[in-house]
Design brief:
Glutaredoxin; two-stranded antiparallel sheet
């Protein structure tokens, strides 16, 4: 995806057993899509930070986390194992399973975690990392995701529009890439 691209339409099964779609963003000032998984140490390092962001912005931002990993290669990323992770992420069932990997391909997502922020007009205004230090939350100096959310919900220009996502690669099914 390129900056200013429109939010792609999708419907995926969430950890609450229900289908969740981009229509679920109605009434929110921004949409945050985070490609993540259960096993990746980078993704695991961000669990508490994602949970806090979801809590801080619950009234203005619709968050979705999407797991697109091949569960045959990484069984710990199975849908069943996503359910307890959704609770840790504070996502109320909006940890979605992209079993076909079609949505990850649509977004051109490559890493876990990898963030896409869409503004009120549902245009992509930020793509990349959550912040500049996955290892130590106390050493973060650049809060890319939080800053992008603040700009998006306040109808301002995002100052840092793109960063390089740091994390494990999405585990593609054999022959799918």
């Amino acid at each position: 995806m390129q900056l200013n691209d429109m939010l792609p339409q999708f419907a995926l099964k969430g950890t609450d057993g229900n289908m969740h779609s981009t229509k679920d963003y109605d009434g929110k000032d921004a949409v945050a899509i985070i490609f993540t998984c259960n096993h990746c140490p980078y993704a695991r390092a961000y669990i508490e930070r994602i949970s806090k962001l979801v809590s801080d912005y619950k009234d203005r931002v619709r968050f979705f986390a999407i797991n697109a990993n091949d569960v045959k290669q990484y069984p710990e990323d199975s849908f069943e194992n996503m359910i307890p992770m959704a609770k840790k992420l504070n996502l109320d069932g909006r940890y979605l399973y992209d079993e076909s990997q079609e949505i990850a391909r649509t977004f051109a997502a490559q890493r876990t975690p990898e963030v896409f922020i869409f503004n009120k007009e549902r245009k992509l205004v930020y793509h990349g990392a959550i912040d500049d230090n996955y290892e130590n939350p106390n050493a973060v100096t650049q809060h890319y995701l939080r800053d992008a959310l603040e700009a998006a919900i306040n109808n301002k220009v995002v100052s840092v529009k793109e960063t390089r996502p740091i994390g494990c690669t999405i585990k593609w099914k054999p022959g799918s890439v």
